[in-house]
Amino acid sequence: MTNRDSYAFGEVWDAARVKPLINQWAEDAKVSMLFLKQIKTINVISEADKWAVVKDSEPVRGMSGNAGSVSSFDKVRIHAYGPGDQPSANSTWLVGINDTYPTATSTIRDIAQDGRWIPHRGIAMPLEQPKGDARMAFEGRIFSYLPTPIATDLPFHVHGVFALISNRKGLVTSAANNSHAASWNEYMLSTLLPPLIVQTMSCLLRLKFDCLDTRQPRTGIDGAFHAILGAYFKMWPLRSSGDMTSLVQRFWELAHTSLIFPVRPLRQETDAPVVQGFAGKDVCFPMCKAPLDVLPKLEQLLRENDVPLCECVQDVSSSALYHWRKASLTMIQTDASLLRKVLRGNSDLMLKIRSQDGRGWLLELLLGVLLDKDEDGIDHLNGLALLPLEDDTWVSLSPNPVYYTASTMARSLFKNHKTMVKESAFATSKLQKILKALEKDPRYGVAPLPPAKFTEYVCLENSAGIPQPKLLQVWEYIRTSPDLTGFGDLPILTTIWGTVVPLRNCQGALRVSQNDRLDTGSMLHKLGQVLQRAGIIVFQLDKNEKHKYLEAKSGPYSDSSVISAFVKSGGSLSSMTFDSSEASTLREVIRSALNEFSHGVMSDLGFLRIWPSYGAAHGESRLICAHSNQIIDGGHDIRNLGDSHNVIQGTYSDTVKRLGAHSVHLTDFTRERVIPRLQSQVIMPISNKAHMTAYIQLLKNLVRIATTKSNQKSEAQRLLQFGSLILARDGSLHACNDLFDPHDTLLTTVYRHSSSNRFPNQEVYTALQSGGSTVTKFRQSTQDPVLIECANTVLEETVKRPHAEATKTMARALVIKIYTKPSSANWMQSRWKVVPISESLPAPYSSSAPYLPAYMSFSDLILKDYQDIAWTQCGFFPSDLEPPQNCRNVWAEVGKPRIQVIVDHLHSLAKDLASTWTSNSEQLQLQLTLINTYTALNKYASESDVNSTTLSSLLTTMTVPYIFNSFEKEISDPEAWQWPDQLILDVENPTATHRLVHSKLTQFRSFLAAAGVHEMLSVAGDVKVTPAPPPSEFVTMLCNLFESQDRTSGFMDVCFRFYPGGQDIFAHKIVLAHSSKYFKTRFLGVWAKHVTRDSADPMLEVIDMSSLASGDEDFYAAFWGVLYYLYSHNLTRWNGPPTPAQLSEAQLASRDGVSERVQYLLSLLALADEYQISRLKDLIAYELVFRRMIVQGNVFTVREHAELKRCRPVVEHCEKYIKANAISLKSFVMGEIVALQKELLKGGRDKDGRETVIMKEEKAEYETHLQVIGEIMKNEEAIGSHLSCNYYL
């Protein structure tokens, strides 16, 4: 550099202005050569000064040339010389270089090629700085071969072939609109550089710690170790900002699996290195907040348990925690959970820690989980030696054995330290809470000292008794306990006799005060010796600290309490004996204070032998105890009823029952003792008056119990009713339920001659009925079993002596009783033949009555109301023994003849009586009988299909014709009787093979159908008619005018003339044209051309209809019906215009009226079809179908006409009718064909041949009908073959 001025960029650059630039460049030259591998020296020479920067480097041994290694690491030294070649600064660096792609996609390679970037990168970490330099003075920068002013806030320099902005003061980012350059920079920072930093850190770890001299003393090693450790971690990128964020985050992610964390060897071996590199995921980061005397021991414990403890500072741990948590990576820390894990089974750690504070800190750390309610941590506490005892030992937490905590006073009363927790170790408030938590959880074996354990320890140390001073201290300790039950074994209770007994003896003891009587007249004095022998405790409350527990557990002194305590003493009271005076005293005391005794006391008092009994049979008495002995409830006297030595006299009934005596009810005593003695004749009322008196009194007492409100009322009633206690007239024993009531009329009638063991002894009966009592109920005929038994007896008598008057009397009495109880048995069974039958019938029925036995069952006899329909087959109830209405309600079929009987009766009428009853009165009676019989059979058949089938089956047994079908003939005439299959219903005329059912018999249709009479079945109709529009008042008026044919008032403008000077029909053209397209077309067409005017009324148009009518009255009537429909939209009720000669409703309903109506409807149907009035056709079909006008005589004609006029509903209905009655119609048609064939074969009577032609036409028409049936039934061949066979009959 010369002193002459230079010119550049239009400015003057002299020495003063250039020198600072040279100095700055010389300063940058100290680091500029870090990543310039080929440049070794830089010299700056001027006329006055000289600067020089020299670089020398050597490869780091063991870090280059490894297999698979692509990075090189050099130790670089920079020597800087100032003017005069004087050294100005020296520095040492660890430089790592790599210029390969680790893994790069084709995209990043294409980006690099386009931008002419290469993956060359490097890291430079300062190993030595010039003296006076510090970490805070160091500023990490980005290099791109040469340094840039871009600071990284990292403790090392970062080099890479970056994409820089034009002035090299920043990296290209995505904001610069150069996505390739920004992507390359991001790839360099997040992918290429972080692995190189990790490798450089690994090299740095080795360089730092390999220089440590392991031959020095341990203290020297530790000092140098911590110094090197601090220098090592100063190179770690702990924080990041700006562009370096992704680089630092990626570095920490790689550190998680890289061996760059220093860990001392887990085993102290001679040739082991000072540290080993571990991956971040495998090391345990140390605990920093611990007392000084605790931390080394914890670290030693961790190492002894093979835990790789990382030697790092807090900043490193915090940075690792931050970055790894951000990347969802795991981190092992020295926390309470880890310590609990390594402490399990190690019981001497707490002993090694000398300071109280250190132990307290560790207890809070390890047991603090109890306060956090962390169940996982709590589960790991068992087995940890963390419980201090008073003997300065530490034991493990476990459910067993249990260690106790106690107050200072309690511990002063005994010297047992092996089970007592040292509570002074839990000095802080948190430790106190932890101790309380340990006490609450039984899993850790820590509990407050229970009273029983306190008592055990005190008694163990004072086996000869507690000295008086200590006794007072014990009272002082337990005074605050409200419940002293746990201290029951402590011998501290002082009695009035001066003895000291265990505290538990206060239970049930008596407490006295100075005011209580203890003189000779008191009960305590009278029974004092007995009480002392019984071990009863009596004490003064004042001399025993007046504790409320003693007051609660003991009872106040009184006469009754002394008795209670005496009883509860536990002695054998049943073995004690008392004289009569003592027994009397005790009885009086017990009776007077009975209500004051508890149930338990009274139960024990029952063992005292102080109660007099009834004694043995000969009358002697003795004292017995109440317990397990008996007392008769109610105090009833049981003398003279056998031995009762264990029964206490009834005077003390209420008292002894409460003391444990069994209250024996008189009913139980009678059942268990009296009845067996009666049966074994120990008690003999019949022969021993005293026994009879006692027996009668016993019965009266039982009756009294059974009639009063008591809990034994029902039991006494059952005993009297069902127990074998009642004497019969013969002296035998029975239950009331087995003996008959001597006041029952039916029983005395039926059993008047029976033995005396069926009725009770009269004296006994009187006693049982004393006071009007009805508690005992002897057997009466109102009872179903008794009534059945009587019926069986009467049934036997009707067999043995059927004609005896006594038998008839018994039977009549029985029947009358049965009528009062019809539901008592199934009296309709045929076995009960106990009803006497009616002896005779009036004439003429008596002549044909059957022979019957004298007694018959209820089901075989018939009421006289049914005489006409069964007299030839059955017997009848006597008029005074007919079942009343209540029986008929229960016996639905009583008195009614069975259907078989009615059929047999009909057979008898037709076979036997029709030919023998010849007089007028007999024949009239027989006709009436037949009508009644037919009525009954018809009613039966109409009730159900099952009945109809049953009747049909029964009628097949008839051997003679049984249908009387000719009421005009005599009933004895055989021609008047017909078989059912010779008759037919629902036809107009008889056929060649069948006769019509007489009109008087049509009411019996169900019977006739069941018998086999042919009938035409009706079929349901199905015709739908569109509803007519609602008529207005004007329309109704027009219709009335048309119907009246009042041309003057009606202003009618058209006349339909059928005969010149004859029948006319007047109408309104507008109505007809509006209602029918046909008429509208005619009015505008044919009729308009040939219309004429009436000479009398020129406004009236006349239409000549004579050519259409051709003298046919039916056409005129049908045409009027069409016009009527166009006016009213209804079907006319008349067969043409209404005239006085029209048929009435009744005539229309007759057979001829129906025939005329059908003929008219068919004519009307023809016009409706021609005029295309479809709704009128539906109305015609509706009337034909639903008024059932289609019958056997016209079904074929109507079908043919309807099919021709396209009225499908009528056609379908006719076919349904034919299908339903195919057999009857076929029989009818074939009969007509056969009859016509026979007439044709005769031939000769027809001279001109006209009748023959007519018969042939009729025969052909019938054959057509037969073919129609065949077509409908799909059976033409069978019918045709049948027809051909009949032609030749």
From TrEMBL:
GO terms for molecular function: Hsp70 protein binding. SUPFAM superfamilies: POZ domain. It comes from the Eukaryota. PROSITE patterns: BTB. Residues 1052-1135 form the BTB domain. This is BTB domain-containing protein. It comes from Podila minutissima.
